[in-house]
Structure formats: C-alpha cells, structure tokens
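Researcher: Here's my situation. A collaborator sent me these components and asked whether they could plausibly form a single complex. I don't have experimental data yet, so a predicted model of the whole assembly would be a useful starting point for our discussion.
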Amino acid sequence: EAQVTQNPRYLITVTGKKLTVTCSQNMNHEYMSWYRQDPGLGLRQIYYSMNVEVTDKGDVPEGYKVSRKEKRNFPLILESPSPNQTSLYFCASSHGTGSSYNSPLHFGNGTRLTVT
Amino acid sequence: EDQVTQSPEALRLQEGESSSLNCSYTVSGLRGLFWYRQDPGKGPEFLFTLYSAGEEKEKERLKATLTKKESFLHITAPKPEDSATYLCAVRVGGGATNKLIFGTGTLLAVQP
C-alpha cells in the first residue's frame, strides 16, 4: 500500500532533550516536506527536500533540522526542543520534478509532540 | 503577501442539506489550487487540483470550482460520513518546488 509513515504518533518530552521524528515513504517520490499544524494557523512548512542530499528551509525552520540521505526517508530533528514546538507535525511527499511538480502531496498520519 | 482564507470556520448541516465552502486567495502567480479532506487523527487526504479560472472537478457529492480570486467546494446532499475538516491550499512561486500555502480549514459536521 502506498503510504507515508511517521513515527512516533505521540511524543511527550522535556525542554532541551533532543528528539527525532522519522518519516518514510514507499512511493519513490522525489519531493518530501515537513509541516506543523497549529490551531488558527493552519499547516506551515518547516523544511522541504527536492531530492537526496537537497534540503531547504520552509516558512518556520527555526529550531529544526532535517536530512535526506536516502530517497525514502526524511527525518525531522529537534536538537533542543522548547514548549513553543508543541504541535502536530506532518510529513508529506510527492513527485516533484519536471512536469510532475504539481502533483498532490501525500501526507502521513501525523506526530503529536508535547514539550514540557 | 500570499494568503489563503477559508470560510466559514465551521459549518453544521443536516443530512441532505447542500451547501458550499469558500476559499479565497491573494497570491502572486497561482500555480494550482488544491482541496484536501482531513479526518480527526489523520493527515490531509487529497481531493482535487484546479489550475485555471472556470475549471471544475467532481467526485461523488463534492464539486470544486475556481475563479480568479476564489474557489468553492460544493457539497450536494451530504451524508454524515462527509463530516471532516476541508483544507484549501495554493501552490505559488516559480521553480520546481511543490510548496503549498494552506488555509485554516472549514470544519464540517453533517448530522443524520
């Protein structure tokens, strides 16, 4: 089944304790992206990747890191989480090159992060 | 500044009561408008892409339309299973990125 898989689904942590949220897709998509979803603010892009070893900042990248060493994986790293990073996070992927750059995003089921 | 606004924020309908959701946008260079459905505890699920004014797309009880300033998602004779949050997003800018700017969504509740 074609899907984007995020882990964990729920995560509670404390300020400053490094964490990684994993994201994997099995659709051979070039483009992957991370969003956070907050009430009243909608989905906002954190980072995106056009292909392996190519990443770039979205609209709200502060406090986050990403890497794209393999095509299927795009982990989100919070080196020193803070309470304002408490949010619902979504990983998404799509075909993203050439004539297919307008293809729809496929989303994972989200990771709810709480930082105390 | 590129902006997407959805209205209403929430809508409650009786089963069979048709209505429309609105998505208005102010962007520099629309490269596509997308509609997604999001169920509680899940990620957004793609519904439609519209590219140019006058375009329409249909799927079951849903029909999406596009003008130069807004898009409508028409829901005809809705059923309780249509209850969800409906998100609108626009793709902007040049280059080969697939960045979307999302609205905050319309929470639809259809009562039997």
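Model: Some features of this prediction you could bring to your collaborator: Residues 10 and 112 of chain A are 5 Å apart (CA to CA). The interface with chain B takes residues 4, 31, 33, 35, 40-45, 48, 50, 56, 58, 90, 92, 94, 96-98, 101-110 of chain A (CB under 8 Å).
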